[in-house]
Amino acid sequence: MKSITALLVIGVLLRVDSSYGKLPAAIRVCSRSVPDLNKCVTDSVIALRPLLATGKFSDDFSIPPLEPLALANINMDQGAEFKATFSRLLVDGPSQFQIDNLKVNLEKLTFDFNIYLPKLAFRGKYDLKMRLLLLNIAGNGDLKGVIENSRARVKLFNEKYEKDGQLYMRVKRLLVKIQIEKGQFDLKDLFNGDPVLSQVGNQFINDNSRLFLDELTPGLERSLSETFKNTANEILKLATMDDIFPA
Predict the structure, then answer these.
(1) Which are the contacts of 97, defined by CB distance < 8 A and separation ≥ 6?
(2) Cβ contact 160:174 at 8 Å
(3) Which of 8, 26, 59, 125 is the most exposed place for a label (fewest CB within 10 A)?
(4) Over the stretch 187-215, which tens digit does the pLDDT of each residue have?
(5) What is the pLDDT of residues 134-149, one digit of tens each?
(6) Pair 115, 152: CB distance under 8 Å
(7) Positions of the chain with pLDDT lower than 50, given as ranges
(8) Cβ(185)–Cβ(206) below 8 Å
């Protein structure tokens, strides 16, 4: 979810004339000569939040919507202590993001910034086997929950490449480091659907939500990084380096 915003940070920097037809006019252009490029890009991305919610920028240009945001499967295997798959995940609330401390380095082609998300509600499917403290917890079924006060540091490392005699840019690495303050989870059908044990398992997970979140975070970071790196590169194929950073 954080990384969708990362794509728009790149998009705002694309100095493509709207008549060129490759990027929509809704993406405000920030010249490299503006007194404060970082602030210009930040303000431009914030202004795009209503369009990010639907994903529709124009009749010819759209991205996956932020409301709800569909996430790729998260697969985790840390041996007998923690094995889990989270699938068909939909998240409400990403369009309320705040972005700050953005730093753009045009020479090194890096973009570095913070994102804050006050509240995210999610739903999907889970398949889980884990040992949390002294309790073995297992089950599969529907999952829903809420996480609050999520913060992330996002960094994109880009590189140039040549195609048909022209230079293009692509994301080489996209790093996401996430911190989630608190979460509340409801996993249906724990312990083969036993209602008493399922309630006990959910209570135990929520009483120890910090430990549960710490187990989930690395897999979420990997999933987001890979998924949105690929999406970013699909967008960047629209324009050459001369279109993005004209002389």
Answers:
(1) 1, 2, 5, 49, 115, 116, 117
(2) no
(3) 59
(4) 999 998 899 999 999 998 899 888 888 87
(5) 788 899 999 999 999 9
(6) yes
(7) 1, 3-4, 13-21
(8) yes
CB atoms near residue 182 (< 10 Å): 13
Give residue 89's identity as a one-letter amino acid code.
Answer: L
**Residues in contact with 207: Cβ distance below 8 Å, sequence separation at least 6, in sequence order:** none
- Helices (H), ranges, 108-240: 195-207, 209-236
User: Nearest CA to 114 among 126, 135, 98, 125?
Assistant: 98
Q: In this structure, are strands 110-132 and 135-163 parallel, antiparallel, or unpaired?
A: antiparallel
Q: Which two tokens stand for residue 192?
A: 């083969």
Helix (H, G, I), strand (E, B) or coil at 157: strand
Q: Return the sign of the alpha-carbon dihedral for residues 129, 182, 9, 24.
A: positive
Element (H, E) at 2: helix 2-13
Phi, psi of 242 (to 5 degrees): -65, -35
Map residue 97 onto helix, strand or coil: coil
C-alpha to C-alpha distance for 122 and 90, rounded to whole angstroms:
6
Which segments of 54-134 are extended strands (E)? 56-58, 61-62, 69-71, 74-77, 82-92, 98-105, 110-132
Instruction: Name every residue whose Cβ is closer than 8 Å to that of residue 34 and which is 6 or more positions away in sequence.
Output: 40
